[in-house]
Specification:
By secondary structure, the chain is of the alpha/beta class. It has helices at 41-48, 71-76, 93-103, 108-121, 126-129, 139-150, 169-186, 197-203, 221-226, and strands spanning 2-10, 16-25, 30-34, 56-61, 64-65, 78-81, 157-161, 189-194, 206-211, 214-219. The structure holds adenosine-5'-diphosphate (2 copies).
């Protein structure tokens, strides 16, 4: 579903962020990208939805070359969740979640019904939280809305960049559990960036272990952990 072919990214200042990366993520597979800060995880992820252009090499999503796909069309098929999701502050939780269906032409009532479904899916009761504004939510709840919104267009691919990185350990553990439950229901193709080895082991069908600009291991958590 996602395929990197000899992808290198050199930033204008000369920094080589990733160097000759090749790997594949199967449809419905969750791959965690793990490694220390600055090793190229975020750069890898941002090249998938064209927020960053590779210097050389090719990336295919669902067989289509990312470099020649209209970014708007490309991103419709890719949900994106970052560490601190930006919600619209003057729209309620339900409205935030319904935004994408509305933009895609779904009528107001249907979009709100869909939004309520999505909030349920991420463990946020729409009756209790739908009418709240983002500043009336805890950090963990805001991240849940971010995930619900990313799922709104029913994208086959989900990119998650440290989505649970800014919440306390207890909430983080809960969000991980919900992610696993969600993934067992909706089966997206997931790239999940984290610097937390435990999280990478728990959430990845396979994990890409980064060294500086390179993937040093790409395998199941059991194999990675069992490796000498
Ligand atoms: P990670 O996500 O693993 O922390 P990044 O992909 O963010 O790593 O960064 C990889 C390397 O590229 C780092 O050395 C970082 O400083 C550099 N880098 C990231 N973004 C830019 C940029 N826009 N311009 C120049 N260098 C960058
Ligand atoms: P979560 O585990 O979902 O992150 P927390 O344990 O952080 O939730 O928050 C506990 C409760 O406090 C939640 O029901 C949340 O709605 C409420 N809460 C947290 N921050 C605020 C806030 N700024 N305004 C109103 N309620 C809040």
């Amino acid at each position: 579903m996602i395929r990197f072919e000899h992808v290198t990214k050199r930033y204008p200042d000369g920094t080589t962020a990733v160097d000759d990366l090749s790997f594949e993520v199967a449809e419905g597979e969750s791959v965690t990208l793990v490694g220390p800060s600055g090793c190229g995880k975020t750069t890898t992820m941002k090249m998938v939805n064209r927020l960053v252009e590779p210097t050389s090499g090719r990336i295919l999503v669902d067989g289509r070359d990312v470099a020649t796909t209209d970014p708007v069309v490309l991103r419709r098929g890719i949900g994106y969740v970052i560490q601190q999701v930006g919600l619209f502050p003057h729209r309620t939780v339900l409205e935030n979640t319904a935004t994408v269906p509305r933009l895609l032409g779904t009528g107001r009532a249907a979009a709100r019904a869909r939004a309520a479904e999505l909030l349920d899916l991420v463990g946020l009761d729409p009756r209790a939280f739908g009418d709240r504004y983002p500043d009336q939510l805890s950090g963990g709840q805001r991240q849940r809305v971010g995930v619900a919104r990313a799922l709104a267009a029913d994208p086959p691919v989900l990119l998650m960049d440290e989505p649970f990185g800014a919440v306390d350990p207890v909430v983080r553990e809960r969000l991980q559990t919900e992610f696993l439950k969600l993934q067992s229901q909706v089966r997206k193709t997931v790239l999940f960036v984290t610097h937390d080895l435990e999280e990478a082991v728990r959430l990845g069908d396979r994990m890409a272990v980064y060294g500086h600009g390179r993937i040093e291991q790409f395998d199941t958590p059991a194999t990675v952990l069992g490796a000498p």
